[in-house]
Amino acid sequence: MGTPLDGGSRVPIGCPAKLRRVTRKKVAPDLEGWLSLAKARYAMGAKSVGPLQYASHMEPQVCLHASEAQEGLQKFKVVRAGVHAPEEVGTREAGLRRRKGPTKTPEPESSEAPQDPLNWFGILVPHSLRQAQASFRDGLQLAADIASLQNRIDWGRSQLRGLQEKLKQLEPGAA
To answer: Which residue stretches, if any, does this entry annotate as coiled coil (predicted)?
Structure first.
């Protein structure tokens, strides 16, 4: 008879080290983004790059999508705004499906793609402002990865605690 530790449960041992590595990676794009933003403010002037140039109506370019992964873990992913996650494709019902009739076409004004926020600062923006935007996007992706890893670590800790409790219950009974 085996112990509960040699069962099919796998505890993610390398997750804390991976989390530290990814966290260090996240600091670099954030720092680079703020430095590039400072360079853009220096090149264009402090009044040309600031909150006064923000649009009156802002829409997000990216959204955070949480999905259920294995063992009920949540996995976070950064997706472009307006793009929906693909649904599972499969046969829901056996038989024929009725096609939808012609639908009313939406007005072109309402289906407009989100405007690039760099255009708020003018047509010809410095390269450092584009670099700042790219760095912050990378940082956002890494933040989603960190959140997914943190969930996995929490799950691993709870699995380890459960296995330790099972082991403690078996030890007094065997002695």
So the answer is: none
Which CA distances in Å does 171 have to 61, 115, 165, 166, 174?
56, 64, 10, 9, 5
Angle at 28 between CA 156 and CA 121, to 5 degrees: 120
Residue 111 forms part of a structural domain: no
Contacts of 58 (CB under 8 A, 6+ apart): 117
In the chain, which ranges are continuous DSSP H helix?
A: 15-44, 127-174
What is d(CA 35, CA 40) in angstroms, rounded to the nearest whole number?
Answer: 9
Q: Give the residue-averaged pLDDT of 119-130.
A: 90
pTM for the model stands at 0.65
Q: Which residues span the domain enclosing 138? A: 15-50+120-175
Closest CA to 61 of 4, 116, 3: 116
Among 173, 43, 37, 45, CA closest to 117: 37
Structural domain total, the chain: 1
* pLDDT grade for 128, boundaries at 50, 70 and 90: very high
Q: Is the pLDDT of residue 151 over 50?
A: yes
Q: Is the dihedral of CA 28, 31, 32, 33 positive or negative?
A: positive
- Give a yes or no: residue 27 inside a domain: yes
For residues 156 and 1, what is the distance between their CA atoms, to the nearest angstrom? 24
